[in-house]
Design a protein that fits this description.
This protein has about 140 residues and is α+β, with helices and mostly antiparallel strands. The chain is about 55% helix and about 15% strand. Strands 1-2-3 form a 3-stranded antiparallel sheet. β1 and β2 (about 60-70) form a beta hairpin. The longest helix has 17 residues, at about 120-135. Pfam families: SufE (PF02657). This is Sulfur acceptor protein CsdE.
């Protein structure tokens, strides 16, 4: 998965539909999420599309699996995941993910239907991280 900085550099050079294509491409780059992990416990509430996020531990870092049944929403969750992927749980739990995503100006780039679930995606990622960090 690309770093958030690498994605931002590319995103800044693109406009309109090209940005949509980049988000779709990011969604395709996500690690495959097994169907068995797409449960009520991993479902992100408040999204217009179905979105699932599942944390795995790899040593002292978190590696997230995520998926969505909508291509652009899958790209948005990929963007959220790129901000936290392979970082320590304690760091992810305290991170200001919203601030990290501000350069993408998603609220003005995408419809409100597509962005309404972003705070819930961030909250679920941080809840998972906080739970794992506390263990």
């Amino acid at each position: 998965m690309r770093s958030l900085d690498d994605i931002r550099e590319e995103y800044e050079f693109l406009e309109g539909d090209e940005r949509y294509r980049l988000l779709i491409e990011l969604g395709r780059e996500l690690d495959e999420m097994p169907a068995a992990l797409k449960t009520d416990a991993t479902l992100v509430r408040g999204c217009s599309a179905q979105v699932w996020v599942y944390p795995t531990e790899q040593g002292d870092t978190l590696h997230f699996l995520a998926d969505s049944n909508a291509a652009i929403t899958k790209g948005i969750v990929a963007l959220v995941i790129s901000a936290v992927q392979d970082k320590p749980a304690e760091e992810v739990a305290k991170m200001d993910i919203t601030a990290a995503l501000e350069p993408f100006d998603l609220r003005n780039q995408l419809s409100s239907n597509r962005t309404q679930g972003v705070p819930n995606m961030i909250a679920l990622v941080q809840e998972h991280a906080a739970r794992i960090a506390a263990a």
